[in-house]
Known about the structure:
CATH class of chain C: Mainly Alpha
CATH superfamily of chain C: Fumarate reductase/succinate dehydrogenase, transmembrane subunit
Number of strands of chain A: 1
Order of helices and strands of chain C: HHHHH
Number of domains of chain C: 1
Structural class of chain A: mainly alpha
Number of strands of chain C: 0
Number of helices of chain C: 5
Largest sheet of chain C: none
Helix content of chain C: over 70%
CATH topology of chain A: 3 helical TM bundles of succinate and fumarate reductases
Number of helices of chain A: 6
Radius of gyration of chain C: 18 Å
Helix content of chain A: 55-70%
CATH architecture of chain C: Up-down Bundle
Largest sheet of chain A: none
Oligomer: heterotrimer
Strand content of chain C: under 5%
Radius of gyration of chain A: 26 Å
Strand content of chain A: under 5%
CATH class of chain A: Mainly Alpha
CATH architecture of chain A: Up-down Bundle
Shape of chain A: flat
Shape of chain C: elongated
Distance between the termini of chain C: 44 Å
Largest interface: A-B, 41 and 59 residues
Distance between the termini of chain A: 100 Å
Number of domains of chain A: 1
Amino acid sequence: MTIQIPAxxxxxxxxxxxxxxxxxxxxYAGRYPAERYLYILHRISGLGLILxxxxxxxxxxxxxAGPEVWDQTMAVLKxxxxxxxxxxxxxxxxxxxxxxxxxxxxHLGYTIGRPGHPVYPYPVAxxxxxxxxxxxxxxxxxxxxxxxxxxxxR
Amino acid sequence: MSATPAAQTTDGARVVIKVVRYDPDKGAxxxxxxxxxxxxxxxxxxxxxxxxxxxxxxxxxxxxxxRMGVCGSCGMMVNGKPRLACNTQIIELGPxxxxxxxxxxxxxxxxxxxxxxxxxxxxxxxxxxxxxxxxEMDKPTREFHQTPEDMLGYVQFSYCLKCSxxxxxxxxxxxxxxxxxxxxxxxxxxYSADTRDEGLSDRxxxxxxxxxxxxxxxxxxxxxxxxxxxxxxxxIQLLKRALLFGPxxxxxxxxxxxxxxxxxxxxxxxxxxxxxxxx
Amino acid sequence: MRESxxxxxxxxxxxxxxxxLGLHMMIMHYESVLRWLGxxxxxxxxxxxxxxxDRDAVMRALYALLLGFALYHGLYGARGILRExxxxxxxxxxxDGASAVFGVAVFIYGVVVIVWAGRHAGTM
Lengths: 154, 279, 124
């Protein structure tokens, strides 16, 4: 006698709930060290710069309309809100450039150490790069301070 | 609440365990539930969850197995960081312990994440040694040689538990389900850097993409979260370098050594057969 | 084109921009520092200075390079961010295409302005 084994009744998959953080996960997803947040600052500064660029190309293109139009354009740009905006563009570039130096070096495999045997407490690549990160952030602060002073005396 | 069995406590203080729960049979989203326990010396978060399940609420669901940090089953979010519950001491967490399922994963129930997508991403990068000679791969005729220096080039990445804590920490993984994730990419490097492997170009078809290795922007949270020191961030940057400049430098020793002069190989089929019985 | 080629161009343009855009920012925003280092000439944004830069062939070439590298680097980054928000294959094609078209359009506009201004500098 062969035993008839009934085909398994397919279980309905119980509903799953998603814990995907979405864009909020870019900004904050838990207690992580500084590089996790330097990453989002790098994105924000980069987005600011690329959004500014086409406007800048158009505004500086006004020079083809002659000196009077140029001087008018420069006068408009002296509005306090736009001056602050211009400083923010400079700040974004300074941060993005110096942090970018760190990223270019890391992406090419420099300053992040070599693989080895993991021995607790585990040294990770970004810890090895931390001295460079600190120096670069100090340079950012210096350039920002001088830039701010230049804006104020202009 | 029923009392825990009598045992030594550290200072009589209770610890509050807050768990974000989800019951698929009831639906209705996630809710928080709180219990108090007496911390015992050496108690881990996993011990606390087992105590809750034993004495307070038997329906609490979580994965665990080895309880010593080598299987990767008990990954969950504990006080703002993804950790292995068995590897985390209660006394270092303070009076309130907030536990929830790993972010960036679907939750099956309570603290049980659905890791199927993690495993399928891992499979997608071909996590095995690939040799150009298919016959040699299927029926090897002799052993590989590898110097200790060659092994150092990849051994730390081989400690991966597939616990998925790194995917919970990764910001790209948060927004982009299609991203391969630090675990798969680090394993792609582990095999590509292995001197026995010749498959970097095979894996390049999968990892040389925006949702592959170039979706990593060096936030570094994956390496912070990793409980075994695998440092996937290092592996991913080295993989980028390998895609541009070729696999890392190997020592001169060939992986498959030449046979000595006059040696007659027993033949491919007998290498893997057991010896004849003698009794 | 393989992604690693596009990405290495992103890194190359990053290095070029540190130099080119750094120089541009120094001229525009660090005038006192430059004067202290010995630079001469009128204020950078006076029309006469603008015309002087338009006349100089080397400056025109550098500006064209700056524009090209900046557009490539910036739009590659923006395209990456958009592709992480919308990750379907159809969205990928749309985002890639739109970024390329927009970049080429702005580059052509900028180069046309540079060439025209170079020809007519001082006669406007």
